[in-house]
TrEMBL record:
Family indicated by similarity: Belongs to the ABC transporter superfamily.
Domain ABC transporter: 10-235
Coiled-coil zones: none
Pfam families: ABC_tran (PF00005)
GO molecular function: ATP binding
Protein's UniProt name: ATP-binding cassette domain-containing protein
InterPro entries hit by this protein: AAA+_ATPase, ABC_transporter-like_ATP-bd, ABC_transporter-like_CS, ABC_transpr_CbiO/EcfA_su, ECF_ABC_transporter_ATP-bd, P-loop_NTPase
UniProt keywords, alphabetically: ATP-binding, Cell membrane, Membrane, Nucleotide-binding, Translocase, Transport
């Protein structure tokens, strides 16, 4: 798929969770994938398909039951993540304490550190006082703070598990813009989501189904299928998803015999594609 450097690889990986009764529940079976430098991978799949397990494995929170997780030397130290439950990641009691645990600001002077606090928070659209206690923050503010801390560590791989699930539309846009900036600076993104409109940022889509990878390819192939003709069932539909509005509109136009110069992933691309139909 790409000649870029491989940062991490999963090879025939399996994960079995032990239940309270001692029985094993297999959540992954024979999962293999490479993560390359500079990719933006969006991971999708139905509930219980194993997509969130990927975040746990990459962040070292879930051991493999079988197979291998191979990463570049010291790469695990350069992987940071934002999980679904914000409180599970906090270390300090205040915003300032949470940021002070990051190595980036520990050697700064008092004045420089104040500026660094502001820059770190504003990168994700937060303007809260650093004295605020974490238990007074809203769920969305907590998630944005976790993202700010992860970005401030300047990781090689940034793993995000449903990072916009608790956010309103404005905050979701702030998160996506902050991650786009990190990606432009060379950070590799692994973004796990159920919001299919977020695939528009992806360079690659990995689809999980029943603990296995059922699709691994480009976003347009995920939504529209491979080849010249629109298939009856696209990979998106095979995973049980209802395509987003933009894709459904484009598919409707294609089924009516319209020729689109571009298979759109977002509203901007849809507007360009429809504009070519108008004389």
């Amino acid at each position: 798929m790409t000649n870029r450097e491989i940062l991490a690889s999963l090879e025939k990986a399996s994960v079995i969770y032990r239940t309270e009764s001692g029985e094993g529940r297999q959540v992954w079976s024979d999962v293999s994938m490479d993560i390359h430098q500079g990719e933006w991978i969006v991971v999708v799949g139905p509930n219980g398909s194993g997509k969130s397990t990927l975040a746990s494995v990459l962040l070292g929170l879930s051991p493999l039951s079988d197979g291998q997780f191979v990463h570049k030397q010291n790469q695990h130290r350069l992987t940071r993540g934002v999980l679904q439950i914000p409180d599970a990641q906090f270390i300090g009691d205040t915003v300032q304490e949470e940021l002070d645990y990051l190595p980036n600001g520990q050697n700064l002077s008092t004045e420089a550190r104040k500026e660094w606090y502001i820059e770190t928070l504003s990168a994700v659209g937060l303007t809260i006082p650093i004295e605020r206690t974490l238990n007074t923050l809203s769920g969305g503010q907590k998630q944005l703070l976790n993202l700010a801390a992860a970005l401030a560590a300047q990781p090689k791989i940034l793993v995000l598990d449903e990072p916009t699930a608790m956010l309103d539309p404005a905050a979701r846009n702030e998160v996506r813009q902050a991650v786009r900036e990190a990606h432009k600076q060379g950070t590799t993104i692994v973004w796990i989501t159920h919001r299919l409109e977020e695939l528009a940022d992806a360079t690659r889509v990995v689809g999980f189904g029943e603990g296995r990878i059922s699709f691994d390819g480009e976003p347009r192939a995920f939504f529209y299928g491979e080849g010249g003709e629109l298939p009856v069932m696209t990979p998106c539909m095979e995973l049980g998803f209802d395509p987003p509005f933009v894709v459904k509109t484009a598919i409707g136009l294609l089924q009516q015999g319209c020729q689109l110069d571009l298979l759109p992933l977002d509203m901007e691309e849809l507007a360009k594609a429809v504009a070519t139909l108008c004389p």
